[in-house]
Design a protein that fits this description.
By secondary structure, the protein is mainly α. Helix content is 63%, strand content 0%. The two termini are 33 Å apart.
């Protein structure tokens, strides 16, 4: 989309700093942040996404290792309670983030 119109407005120093901080936190330029905000677009940012990705990766690795051991006949039964609790916790956090409750 070709942007051909310019909108300018003045804010106080405190307002500017607040907008700038929110834009930085959401990893957007001030212009993009203000545009999205003015157009009633929901802006969601994820501070903990790297940690969540790391935890999910660990769960996936553990499940893969258990699957290999099961196919090899080295284990017959697996208790996945801890993995399930961790996954449920991560899922709950992600849902909170998406719903903007965090």
């Amino acid at each position: 989309m070709n942007k051909t119109k310019f909108i300018g407005f003045r804010v106080t120093e405190a307002e500017y700093n607040k907008i700038k901080k929110k834009a930085e936190k959401s990893k957007l330029s001030i212009s993009k942040y203000v545009s999205l905000s003015a157009l009633d677009k929901e802006i969601i940012f994820f501070d903990d996404i790297k940690e969540m990705n790391h935890q999910l990766s660990k769960i996936g690795n553990n499940l893969n290792q258990l699957t290999v051991l099961a196919y090899q006949g080295k284990i017959k039964e697996v208790n996945l309670t801890k993995a399930r609790e961790t996954f449920t916790g991560l899922w709950d956090e992600l849902c909170k983030l998406v719903k903007g409750k965090r």
